[in-house]
Amino acid sequence: MTYTKPLPQINPDTKDFWEGCRSHLLQIQKCSECEKPRWLSSFMCPYCLSTNTRLFNSSGRGKVYSFVVYHVAYHPSFKDDLPYVVALVDMEEGFRLLTNIIGCAPEEVHCDMEVEISWDDVTKDVSLPKFRPVVRIHP
Q1: Longest distance between any two alpha carbons in the chain, whole Å
Q2: pLDDT, tens digit, for every residue of 24-81?
Q3: How many C-beta atoms surround the C-beta of residue 85 within 10 A?
Q4: Residue 4 within any structural domain of the chain
Q5: If we measure between CA atoms, which residue out of 2, 4, 1, 26 comes closest to residue 81?
Q6: Does residue 5 sit within a domain?
Q7: How far apart are the C-alpha atoms of 69 and 85, rounded to whole Å?
Q8: Domain residue limits at 99
Q9: Three-state SS for 57?
């Protein structure tokens, strides 16, 4: 089956991120000078203007900062997904990621909900990082 939804436009700044995603690794840039993580990736740190950077692997865990539930498909390929959740997730490592929340009903999503990464392999070259609620098993 052909994937019909929009795909990321990979460029030199985001290439490492998307290659990591293809391997199911959430690789994020960190400034080698001020140590601040950054997403979106860029050639220069927006905090200290350094061009020295390195990659680190995120734990893939965070909390929902804010979210919206879409009830209208603004692109025809999303019609069968309605309703769906788009959220900003504050990651444990100190950066914020725009993503989808899956694995629960939209009405169950709330701010500060703990989430963890879940990979959606949409093509042979692209895996999208999505997030699902953390399930806690109590003894």
Answers
A1: 49
A2: 999 999 999 999 998 888 889 999 999 999 999 999 999 999 999 999 999 999 999 9
A3: 22
A4: no
A5: 4
A6: no
A7: 5
A8: 59-139
A9: strand
